[in-house]
Design brief:
It contains 12 helices and 2 strands. It is an all-alpha fold.
């Protein structure tokens, strides 16, 4: 009975799995445990990321540009779990079948899940890029362009769209079953023609390039803030960059096992036959389950790491209700102050006209 209840919230209805090349990777018990583990890790991550986002947006942290930039990643991470959760609701499935929208077919789910996955990776990448941009502009005494946050959001979305939907145009493979044979992702079996190189490039751009760019940007930002910048905000930026380094390293560690397994499958075909790669994964269900659970619980690990290293975040999350109330009161006072200044300026203009 419990399995039937859980199954309603575990993602799209799978297609018949007889033609799945990974059918022997999991046995039935491992497949059920895998699905239930995804449910637990997904819900746990969703609760913590929602808590963090409320603390960032409803408290005085939102006045700090550092935390607003960080919210690009935390909100994206939260949205991914929300999107998958909504897709798993029985009511959404009913509407999908009623209107025949085909939103929950295995292939469409694969595209949607890949989009939010890449969006999450690119969001963290742009948070790291923002650290470098802030440090570099401070080092040269340049004023920050207020349009930068919008640029980060737009570029994050554009990269996610590009890396996700290029295959829909006929380039870079197709969507097919993942290791569990219950949901879909991008086909890991390389085509035999020139398309295989597009698949390899897309894998590199989605998985390897962001990690290299993240660490490079953070290392450069840390160096500039510590050794070059002399402005009064340098110490504050340095501390925040350390915090971003902590959550980035923690997140990459939890992403790495799944990326390494998929990388082995994709790049391994350059040296071995496809049948040898498939045979080597037989009975590998438990390690894949662990890798996927680590991947899905990574947002929760990110939140816990941030709470540990950042006292401001920890205080505002633990005292969310009172912090939000204080922030609202400060916002009201600032609004009153701005209104008074505006009225005073109007009175001055009227006095000048009378003279």
């Amino acid at each position: 009975m419990a399995s039937l209840i859980f199954q309603a919230f575990l993602g799209p209805e799978p297609l018949p799995i007889g033609n799945c090349v990974w059918i022997d990777t999991f046995n039935d018990d491992e497949r059920n445990s895998y699905q239930h583990g995804l449910l637990f890790t997904g819900v746990f991550s969703q609760v913590l990321t929602l808590w963090l986002n409320l603390a960032l947006m409803l408290t005085i942290l939102w006045k700090d540009e550092n935390y607003r930039n960080l919210a690009l990643f935390t909100v994206t991470s939260c949205l991914r779990k929300v999107a998958d959760g909504i897709a798993g609701l029985p009511s959404f499935r009913y509407l999908d079948s009623l209107f025949k929208s085909n939103m929950l077919s295995c292939v469409m789910f694969g595209y949607h899940d890949c989009f939010f996955s890449v969006l999450e990776i690119e969001a963290l990448t742009h948070v790291c890029v923002a650290r470098y941009v802030m440090a570099r502009y401070a080092a040269y005494g340049w004023p920050l362009d207020p349009r930068f946050p919008t640029l980060y959001i737009v570029s994050t979305i554009m990269f996610a769209i590009g890396y996700t939907y290029i295959p829909m145009l006929g380039f870079g493979g197709t969507v097919d079953y993942d290791f569990s044979c219950t949901t879909c992702t991008y086909e890991m079996m390389l085509p035999t023609d020139h398309q295989r190189y597009i698949v390899l490039i897309l894998f590199f751009m989605r998985s390897i390039k962001p990690a290299v760019l993240m660490m490079g940007m953070l290392a450069r930002a840390y160096y500039l803030d510590k050794n070059v910048c002399t402005d009064k905000e340098a110490g504050k930026r340095l501390t925040f960059t350390r915090n971003i380094m902590s959550i980035t390293v923690a997140t990459l560690i939890f992403w790495a096992p799944l990326a390494l397994i998929r990388g082995y499958v994709v790049f391994g075909q350059l040296f071995y036959e496809k049948s040898e790669i498939i045979d080597s994964m037989v009975g590998f269900g438990t390690p894949i389950s662990l890798a996927m659970w680590l991947y899905w619980i990574s947002p929760a690990v990110m939140v816990l790491t941030l709470m540990y290293v950042d006292e401001n975040v920890r205080h505002n999350m633990i005292n969310l209700r009172s912090s939000a109330k204080t922030a609202a009161e400060l916002a009201d006072k600032e609004a009153e102050k701005e209104e008074k200044q505006r009225m005073n300026e109007i009175e001055k203009e009227r006095g000048k006209k009378k003279q």
